[in-house]
Amino acid sequence: MGFDVAGVRAETAGVDERVHLNNAGAALMPDQVVEEVVGHLRLEARVGGYEAAEMAEARVEGFYTSVARLLGARPEEVAFAESATRAWELALGSVPLGAGDRVLTTVSEYSSNGMGLVKAARAVGARVEVVPDDADGVVDVGALERALDAGGVVLVALNHMPTHNGLVNPVERVGRLCRARGVLFLLDACQSVGQVDVDVDRVGCDFLTATGRKFLRGPRGTGLLYARAGVRVGEPAVVDVSSAEWVGAQSYRVREDARRFESFERSVAGQLGLAVAADYAYALGMEAVGERVAWLGEVLRERLGVLPGVRVWDRGRVGERSGIVTFSVQGVGAEWVRASLARAGVNVSVARVHNQVWEHRGLPEEVVRASVHYYNTEEELAVLVGAVAERVGV
């Protein structure tokens, strides 16, 4: 499907040890990413942290170009962050909310994001409104349009792909609605950057946040923030000598570009590794990556769905779903299934759906989450399905 799967697997050490189907949690890094991170840490050990950063300055600057190229952005619209959560919080903190303002989000919003929205709104007397889903489980674009047209909306904040099921929200349609009305659009792309082709101009978002550790296959402790050039927002909640400069004894000036959201102290090794991960994804071709991930996800849903006692819980439009597959096994808990599969050499995780307080559709408290990536194979999916079948007595 556009690239050499065997070659990619040869550059991924972990595939020889486990069947790794926890890519929505943390994917396996390519060897090149590991070498970049470890190499810089070794340089820091030899010459010192500040000195190593100075020696790597050109490659650090290359991070902004690498991420911008992957997202269809400009380098000055990219910032490095310690995590996607940190990036999302910084973006939200710059939105000028006031009393009576409205913030729109979706039923499937990530639980931590939901808390952040409620906290920010409560502090100023704004309110958060949850737009309903349509019959497929994605955000109802018609309902969103009506909510926008009612007036008073300052921000739309939603996820591209929720963490706990397979749906993909129609973010480009959302972006067009927001742009036409001058409403800020903050997109959580944690599960989509590195899994599908994400172009910020096509999406039409003002902010986009993502993590390194998931489908982008970068190091843990890394994230990124896209902030559209010219977006009219307030100052970041926190400034330092990296994001601003003194212009008088009692005044300072914040940077104009996205780096106004950065902090001086960061993991240089992590930033370098994330740049390599972005280059790696771009070189493979995100359209080809997205096609393979979607195909593997549908294969897994189909094979799990025919097992007696197994139920697949994913929502979204068929043919437009992500590589995140959630299921339950009748009579046993999700954590037991996860631990049992781990003993069989298969990595999956548990999605605690009860954290999604706005989503009510008869879900169990916990479901098993198996998330595929392009380096996975049909044979690995068969290992997972066989292990589940054995445990349910098929």
Descriptive key words:
394 residues; 7-stranded mixed beta sheet; 4-stranded antiparallel beta sheet; 39% helix; globular
Describe this structure in words.
A 7-stranded mixed β-sheet has the order 2-8-7-6-5-3-4, with helices on both faces. The relative contact order is 0.17. Helix 2 (31-47) crosses helix 3, helix 5 (84-93) runs parallel beside helix 6 (111-124) and helix 7 (141-149) runs parallel beside helix 8. It is of the alpha/beta class. Strand 6, helix 9 and strand 7 form a beta-alpha-beta unit. The protein contains 13 helices and 15 strands.
Short précis:
By secondary structure, this protein is of the alpha/beta class. It has helices spanning 5-10, 31-47, 49-55, 57-71, 84-93, 111-124, 141-149, 171-181, 200-203, 268-284, 286-305, 334-343, 378-391, and strands at residues 19-20, 78-81, 102-106, 127-131, 153-159, 184-188, 207-211, 223-227, 244-248, 251-254, 310-312, 324-329, 346-347, 349-351, 367-371. 39% of the residues lie in helices and 17% in strands.
